[in-house]
Description:
The complex is a heterodimer of chains A (317) and B (348).
Chain A: E1 4-7, E2 10-13, H1 20-35, H2 37-58, H3 105-141, H4 143-157, H5 161-172, H6 176-203, H7 206-213, H8 218-257, H9 267-275, H10 284-311
Antiparallel strand pairs in A: 1-2
Helix pairs in contact in A: 1-10, 2-3, 2-10, 3-4, 3-6, 3-8, 4-6, 5-6, 5-8, 6-8, 8-9, 8-10, 9-10
Chain B: H1 4-20, H2 24-28, H3 40-51, H4 57-69, H5 85-119, H6 125-139, H7 142-153, E1 185-186, E2 189-190, H8 196-202, H9 206-243, H10 246-253, H11 258-276, H12 278-296, H13 301-310, H14 314-342
Helix pairs in contact in B: 1-4, 1-14, 5-9, 6-9, 7-9, 7-12, 8-9, 9-11, 9-12, 10-11, 11-14, 12-13, 12-14, 13-14
Amino acid sequence: MVTESTIGGKVLKSRNTKRRPRMEDFSHTFKLFVKNKIAFVGFAIVLIYFIITVLDYADPYWLGVANINTVASWAPHLTAAVPTPPTLARGWWYWFGETQFQAPIFPVMLAALKTDITYSLIVVLTGLVIGIVLGTLSGYFGKLYDELLMRITDIFFSVPTLVMAIAVTTVLGYSLQNVMIALIIIWWPIYARLTRGVSLSIKSNKYIEASTAAGSSGLRNVFVHVLPNVLSVVFVQFSLDLGTVVQLLAALDFIGFNKANPLLPELGSMLTWGTTYLVGGIWWPIVVPGIFLLIFTVAVNLMGDGLRDVLDPKLRR
Amino acid sequence: MLLLIPTILGLTIFMFILIDSVPKGILASPYINPHSSVPVKIQIQNALKILGLNYPPPIAYLFYLDRLVHGDLGLMSMPGYPNSVSAAILDALPNTIQLTIFASIVSIAIAIPLGTYIGARPNSVADQAGRIFTLTGYAIPAFWLALLLQLGLGKGTISGNPFGFFPISGSFTASLIPYPPPSWFVGGYTEPTHLVIFDSLIHGDFPLFVDSLEHIVLPTLTLTYVLLAGILRFIRAGMVDASNQEYVKTARSKGVPEKQVIKKHIRKNAMIPAVTVMGLLIAGLLGGVVLTETVFQYPGMGYLTTQGILYYQVWLVMGGALVFGLILVLTNLIVDVVYAMTDPRIRY
Lengths: 317, 348
């Protein structure tokens, strides 16, 4: 039995090393990614946001109250008084001042990340799974099914995303959960298009022909050969979309779809609360949550651009 | 061209599915006259019969399509607006188109020279500044930017702000309209174009003209920033791409002046990829219009649609979405034509 072979002086071990090339590839990718400093900073910021989200779930009391799902925990009286400006004198809660109901902005904003990031992750991941399955199959098997799927995705691309989300949420009912469902409904076509294109180009490769000749079924080809190649492209899109969806979620909430639970900490709601005092010239309830939203989306974009450079076989090495 | 028809039909089918899943009573509610002596139940039945919604969905869809073809998008009941959705949308549409065209003109006028400058100097300080600019423009939520502009440049927000001289809501100051209003001021809109900027000029009302110009500055700035970031990014990429081509080397080596090389050889080719993504940018622009109009309460289609959400007017929201879709489909068609014109290699 051959356990070693030599190609060009380099010893390749074949026993027990089936996954080795992929792991080596992964660590190489990671090294390239770390080298790209800007992208790595983006990644680090995104990681911090995720850690805050996990903390919100693991130990809600770290924000100082027992229930972080309502503003009433921080501001039990929900008074309409004018919010106080940012100050260092009253402890870390009040570093960024107060918003409507005299609730402290900082802890409410940290609690809001839980809602925003969880919902966006659900939207993007669900859309991604549906899109990949439909898109890959459609690209590989083609014909009538492909034509039908592409016409359906055309419909979703023919209306601006925000407007489509408004239409679907209006029908589903005014709540953040329904905004999430609406975004899932309109998000999968992006991935379906993307993966369809990739799987179409992979399909014409010789190794697919070879594996078919060796007796592999169409479905096996899709899952073993096409899907792994689709994933790297999808991963870049996924990281970029995360920022877009967080923005959309906040925008839809801002427009007024969060009627069911207006006291829920959420970045869009926080901006809505801030607009109450716009004419009074009170800027911090608007500026601070927006900056946190902006930092997240910029970081996600930096990370996505870096990932694209690293994962694109044309640009790497 | 013909490929548009299945898309538009598919869009109407999708809209119909959405409408059909709303409870029938809500769909019929704008068709009910509360002051009528006829019982409400019977009025609902009559309304459903007129709308064809008591038939099975495929037939009800044909009723819906028939009404769309005749320009009937349904009814709505919102204070201060006409009862017909089509009429309300037609009233508001000019403002939206004006806003998008203003923003497009301003951003293209800035993007082409700026993109040329940046693209000709990759990795310079100007390029890095441009990169930060496009990145934030890409990542900034349009509605937050609008709020920031209201705070920073808006009249009456932050007291003592030296830059605060732009009005923050509406398309003109209502107190400038005398009482009784002039004959060309009908139902909250100016005749004949509904665009206060042009109508005030037509009728020689100069103070109103200046006032309406001041009102459009902040919404245009918001949209310009969002659009400019997208265009700039692609022009820069196109410039860098084109300047690595062989024909550019040839032009330089045969002694063509650098200005000519950048203008004629690089920029012309850099515009092609920028035009292809125009459709995407316009889709983003239309989404941005909805948010911008909502924040500035600018009486366009976006503001109308979000008002429809607050008052739960299903026909209005669906009609607005459909019209936005049609606008996008048509602009994409125009983009394709422009693309064919800019790139002589493409012939349909």
